[in-house]
Structures are given as C-alpha cells and as structure tokens.
Write a structure and sequence with these properties.
By secondary structure, this protein is mainly α. The protein has helices at about 10-40, 45-55, 60-65, 70-100, 105-150, 160-175, 180-185, 195-200, 200-215, 220-245.
Amino acid sequence: MNSGVPEPGRTMPFLQHLEELRRTILWCLGVFTGGLFITFPLAPAILNLLREPLARTVINPGQFLQSIEVGAAFSVSLRIAGWGSLLITSPLMLFFITRFVFPGLKDAERSAVKKAFCFSLALFVSGVVIAWWTTLPAALQMMMRMHDWMGITAIWTVSSYVRFCLGLLIGFGLAFQLPVIVFVLGSLGIVNAKMLAEKRRHVIVGLLVLAMLLTPPDVITQLLMAIPLILLYEVCIIILKVKQKP
C-alpha cells in the first residue's frame, strides 16, 4: 500500500516531479503566447503611451523619433508585445509556479509567499508608474541637455527610444521588488527589524549603486530611483518591528 512516502530506490516521485515541472513550464509558455495575441495588436497604442514622457521634452514626439532600419517597426512591435505580454500574464504564470512549489512548503512559508505575491505585484506596478510619470521624463530631458551641451543634434531612432524606455521602466519595477525580498526573509525569521536597522548604512550604499546600474548616467535619475527604495526599506523595518513585537 502506498502511504505517499517514497520507498528507498524508487525514482517515480522524482520523475513525477519533473513531469509536473514540464507541465508548469508549458502552461507558462502557453499563457505568454496567448498574451502576445492580445498585446501585439495593441503595440501602436502602447508606443503612443511611451511617447507621452517624450512630449514633455520635445514639441512633436511623433516626428522626432526616426526609423533607419527596414525591419525596425516589426522589431519594435515584437519587443513591445513581448514585454507587454509578460506584464499582463505574470500573475497567472506566478500562479502556476506557486502551485508547483506549494506542496514542498510549510504553512508559514505558504502564507509568506501568498502575501508576497500581492505585495510584489503592487510594488512592480507602482515602480513602473513612478518611473513613467517622473523618472522617464527627467531622464529624457537630461539626455537632451547632454546633447545640447556637447553640441550634438539629437536624432533618436524609435528602436533605441523604446529600448531605453522599457529598460528604465522594467528596471524600476524589478528594483521595487527589494521590499518583497526583505518582507519574505522577515516573515521566515531569517532577518529581523533590529538587523535591518543595523545594516541601514550598507543597504543605502547598495541601493545607490543599484540605482546607478539601472538608470542613465545622471545623478537626478539615480536619486529618483534610490530615494523611493530607501523609503521602502524603512517601511519594511517598521512593518517587521510591528509584526515581531511579542
């Protein structure tokens, strides 16, 4: 009679684990592909949305961006559709991933993952919105001033512009996942509020370096990323301090 505990020498549970992993990967790929059918027709509208921060820098953003490659429009639409599909389907893909991981987690770990899931999604969206509304226009204006300072006529291609915008927006969204990591580690008892407070100086330096790596090479844009991350880190300390009170 099978009690659910694998017998010594049997490989079936491991093979079943691999089969479940294969199914999870296929489900994620299928969901992502389905998302492409939604986002690809919307690529022109998404590009217009990406142009809005540029409208605060130049008079006519539609004519300012140029295309000098035959396949530029197709490659840009694929890039926009791909990242758009990843964004809208990520909650469903995370659901399949957590369904695969959950059987091997304890109750406390499952609770931490569930809370982190909602927290992560909200922070990612917040990071992208903040970057689109504040950081991206500031970065574009700074890049334009650098062109003027160097006496260079700015003629930007649509490919480089989309790559720049998506890199900055996604970089902000990913950087805003730091509090999720801190929250999960705190929920699992690996770190506590006192430990985070003691390492505050080191973390601030690390966040400044992270902002330097993920943003264009200007101080204003780097601070626009680093300051919210530092504030979120302080919020995590407060949350863990309240949660860990006896």
